[in-house]
Amino acid sequence: VQLVESGGGLVQPGGSLRLSCAASGFTFRRYHMRWYRQAPGKERELVARITSNGDTTNYADSVKGRFTISRDNAENTVYLQMNSLKPEDTAVYYCNGVLGFIDYWGQGTQVTVSS
């Protein structure tokens, strides 16, 4: 089982990034997918989630209207489009797959928003 995040990096405030999370080793289309983030010295927080078939999404208040989660079940990939980035969005972003009590995590990708 693998979840591999990519797309992180350094971006200026107001910029955009698109994170990807490629899944393998499990039946991706059955899993609800989530993006979490963890900033230095802070707890990991849920940023966005999407149901297995993609018909429902939810967002943290701090990112609502700026971030969009989506998935491509044919490509076994979940995305996080991040627009209007702010310095407080700086964190390691993690991909998470959930089905009942089964819980898979990626290794994370660093996003740094700074001028």
Q: Can you offer a commentary on this structure?
A:
It is built from no helices and eleven strands. The strands form two sheets. Strands 2, 4, 5, 6, 9, 10 and 11 form a seven-stranded mixed β-sheet that branches. A four-stranded antiparallel β-sheet has the order 1-3-8-7, with no helix packed on it. A hairpin with a 2-residue loop joins strand 9 (91-99) and strand 10 (102-105). The protein is globular, with a radius of gyration of 13 Å. It is an all-beta fold and 115 residues long. It has strands at residues 2-6, 9-11, 17-24, 32-38, 45-50, 57-59, 67-72, 77-82, 91-99, 102-105, 109-113.
Proportion in β-strands: over 45%
Secondary structure category: mainly beta
Please tally the β strands and state the result: 11
Segments where pLDDT lies below 50 for 5+ residues? none
Distance from N terminus to C terminus (CA atoms, Å) equals 37 Å
Q: Helical segment tally?
A: 0
What is the multimeric organization of the chains shown?
single chain
Compressed to H and E, one letter per element, the order equals EEEEEEEEEEE
Radius of gyration: 13 Å
Tell me about the largest β-sheet.
7 strands, mixed
Mean pLDDT: 97
Query: What is the percent of helical residues?
Result: under 10%
Q: Could you say which overall geometry the principal axes of the C-alpha atoms support? A: globular
